Amino acid sequence: MPLRTGNITLNTPRHARSRRTVAVTLVFFGLQLCGMDARAQGCTDDPSAQEHPAVQRYEGACLLRSQNKTFDSYWLPLGKPLKRDGGWTTEPGQRLEGAVTRLMYAAPAGRSALEVFRNYEQGLAQQGYKVLYRCSKAECGGRPLLLEVLFGNGQRRAFADSGASTGSDRAYYSFPDPNDAYFLVARSANGHTHVAVYVGFKSSTVVKETSGRAIILADVVESTAMEQKLIDASAMNKAISETGRIALRNIYFDFGSDALSDESTPALDQIAELLKQQGGLTLYVVGHTDSVGTHEVNMSLSQRRAAAVVHALVTQYGIAASRLVPAGVGDLAPVASNRTDAGRAENRRVELVERPR
After folding, report:
1. What values do phi and psi take at 285, rounded to 5?
2. Which of 35, 88, 197, 353 is most deeply buried (CB count within 10 A of its CB)?
3. What string of pLDDT tens digits covers the 357 residues of the chain?
4. What is d(CA 111, CA 147) in angstroms, rounded to the nearest whole number?
């Protein structure tokens, strides 16, 4: 059902109830006082742009640009931007993969950036969303969050050039200077939808039809990563029989925490099924982290995460505690370089290791 909060409508797609993850990044830039509809003031839709059902158009806005990729990688910021190995990232953050749709709207004026931000914050809370990260103004890191993390590595120009050629410069130069910004990332109660809301102010007059307006950027990521990475009980048994271990990367935790997220349920289901099918199997449940943070913190976190998996299997699935031993090795056993986002994602995992009978 659509959520209406003032002039803003969020629409949760029907397929959000499935195991697919939908990540939505909404970027809003503050409004100057004006009582007229955006299109009435000369802002028109890009004829080649297409909307996405996960995000409904802000009332009175015009659609400046859209871009769709059937499969791509997307970094969801969950911390302040920082420069590492010559590029920009955030710590922490989450790597998503799947169909990526990017939308750009120009909204009518009339409300402050903070008012719009609070409106979304309250609306998301009413829908049961949990805030994973929140920042305001200088805490958000200034220009790098928008122009290096969300739209870095030439993505701004590629996005602007993705629609009708006549609107390329309009889309490119409508990006604002995000010095006065508010940002949050929230996750739905079922864990399948992530929403990031960025609110700032646009003052440039380079593009007159969008000058002084809210510029809305919406990124929709429909991720199939969980289905692709899900290893069933049969595959787990085969790997353990052949190599003595299996690495699982679809067990998810809240950031910097040992709290299991709802997205871990499919993997836990399969581990429990494995243990029920193989009644004599006993396992070490081993937690691994990337190298972000101190070694001591990572050792503690990996141990607690392993213990959380064991606790879930014992209390929710009825597995005998004597069959499972939690252990944490922190960042001691990487399988990829910790210098890249992709490598760190590979290193964050839980392994099932066969114990001697």
Report:
1. -105, 110
2. 197
3. 344 444 444 444 444 444 445 555 555 544 433 334 555 456 789 888 887 665 667 777 788 888 888 777 778 888 888 887 667 888 888 877 777 888 777 777 766 777 767 777 877 787 777 888 898 888 888 888 767 887 787 888 888 888 888 888 888 887 766 777 888 877 777 666 677 777 777 667 788 877 877 777 777 777 654 444 578 999 999 999 999 999 998 898 866 788 898 778 999 999 999 999 999 999 999 999 988 778 999 999 999 999 999 999 999 999 999 999 999 999 999 999 987 767 887 898 999 999 997
4. 24
Coil, strand or helix at 130 = strand
Domain with CATH 3.30.1330.60 in the chain: 230-354
* Cα atoms in the Cβ-side hemisphere of radius 13 Å centred on 240: 23
- Distance separating alpha carbons of residues 1 and 10, to the nearest angstrom: 9
Q: Which residue has the tokens 């210098």?
A: 339
Assess contact for 164 and 119: CB atoms under 8 A: no
Q: What are the C-alpha distances in Å from 297 to residues 90, 120, 210, 290, 309? A: 19, 34, 47, 11, 18
| Domain 230-354 part of CATH 3.30.1330.60 | yes
Side-chain half-sphere CA neighbours of 315 within 13 A: 6
The number of beta carbons lying within 10 Å of the beta carbon of residue 337 is: 13
- Cβ atoms within 10 Å, residue 233: 17
Task: Tell how strand 93-107 and strand 87-90 pair up.
Answer: unpaired
**pTM, rounded to two decimals:** 0.55
Q: 286 near 350, Cβ under 8 Å?
A: yes
Rg over CA atoms, the chain: 22
Six-digit token string for 109: 């004026």
Report d(CA 30, CA 296) in Å as an integer: 43
Q: Say if strands 324-328 and 2-5 run parallel, antiparallel, or are unpaired.
A: unpaired
Angle at 344 between CA 342 and CA 345, to 5 degrees: 65
CA 76 – CA 10 distance, rounded (Å):
19
Q: How far is 134 from 123, CA to CA, in rounded Å?
A: 15
Residue 103 sits at φ, ψ, to 5 deg, of: -125, 145
